[in-house]
Amino acid sequence: CAVYATVSFEVHYVSPGLCWGLVAAALVGVVLAGGLASASAWRKYRSTGAGAYSGGDVVAQAPSWITFLAISCLAAWILGVVLGNMNFWTNMQPYYDYHNLNSHGALDPSRMQGKEFMDAGRVRFTNSSVLDLRKSMGFRNLDTYCVAPITVQTPGGTQLNLETYDFWAVGLDCCQTHVADFHCGEFNNPQAHQGLRLMRDDQRPFFRLAVQQAQATYNIKAEHPLFFYWVSDANAEMLSFRDDGYKYFLIGMLIHFAWQLLCVTLAVLGFAKLGHL
After folding, report:
1. pTM, full prediction
2. pLDDT tens, residue by residue, 14-66
3. What CA–CA distance (Å, rounded) separates 42 from 35?
4. Any alpha helices (H) in the chain, and if so which ranges?
5. Alpha-carbon gap, residue 129 to 123, rounded angstroms
6. Phi then psi for 64, rounded to 5 degrees?
């Protein structure tokens, strides 16, 4: 439980060295339990003899609770590290990243440039900001990396042509390549005017290639492109990562407790049947 929590949450983000030091300390405890189990098994082996017989049958060695404890601790440690890492990288690490970046409001893409908002994690664009779906583009490399520039729409419904398009909505596998067909996120929600920053470094180069294709196709400029998921409530989207992290942590804990209870029950029944409880 402690290993699962340590790897899943803030200690892993703020101080990875401390996190893995605590995990290593827990492993020392597991190794000690294994050592005690091995010593106990060796003492029983020596006391009965390697070839002890009773009526021609090999004498059964008594089962040991310390062996059961050592195996349970090792399984818990491995599951804590593996599942904790999965929960951290999938849910909690994105939440901590967004939480530590700045939040900006009233961003007008027609007047502001991307280099002014390099520290942005959550952005609230002006209410006149919309996606220019006519200039969307997709770049395919196994997945399809979709981009659409964020522009400004006049009260009459005309979308302005900007000098530079530095703010882009993105998504995966939600468009066609070489065709203006962007349907990612809340693209069709008239109340959506916010952006949640793309944090995946491994995806960013492919979205840049999609922007470069859009530049060449539509003869537009993008000097400092920043990528966002187009949403109606960026703060709620950020908090959903935290909530999912807590949820999966609790689910993992409950499942492990249920499994451990089953194992203990079976061990008690088995040891009682053998008369070694």
Report:
1. 0.79
2. 999 999 999 999 888 888 877 776 776 667 666 665 544 444 444 445 556 77
3. 10
4. 2-8, 10-14, 16-48, 65-87, 93-100, 204-218, 234-274
5. 12
6. -130, 135
